[in-house]
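Recall that a protein's primary structure is simply its ordered list of amino acids. Everything else, from secondary elements to tertiary packing, is in principle encoded there. The following example makes that idea concrete.
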Amino acid sequence: MNVPVSLRKPVWLSLGLCAAIFAPRAYLAVHDQGMIWADEIFQSLEQGHRLAFGYGLVPWEFQFGARSWLLPGVIGGFMRLLAAVGIDHGLSLVIGTKLLFALGAAVTFYPLLRLAYVLGGGAATLLLGIGAIAFPASLLYSSRALAEVACAPFVTWSLGVLWP
């Protein structure tokens, strides 16, 4: 199928901006091992590790069913996948998982960039891309193993699919 040139240009522009959005998030995923909220460790990474490797703490939220096992299950599956390819050291598992979240945060912007192009053209797309690359809160939270970060791609891609 031949895609018109007018539609190919914003695709490459959006993909290039997504790569630029991913770069600082990947850097932070590797180099920032601090903690903002305890949930990013005890409610996601710790539970994913426990599901993958069989040991770890179990907070009351999981003992009594106050939290879903979906996010820890995905993280645990990804950690098992990393272990299967030889990445099984604790810090490496955390960095790998944070890189996955950073990638998810970067692809969150793709449908938004496409919508910006449709609604405002190339200038709007570039403005959104620059804002996404440098917005401090987005940079700070994008590689964190939090449910909100994991949900964002599904919300924006749904918006992109449902937009008329």
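The helical segments are 5-31, 39-53, 60-63, 70-84, 90-134, 136-141, 147-162. The chain has a mean pLDDT of 90.
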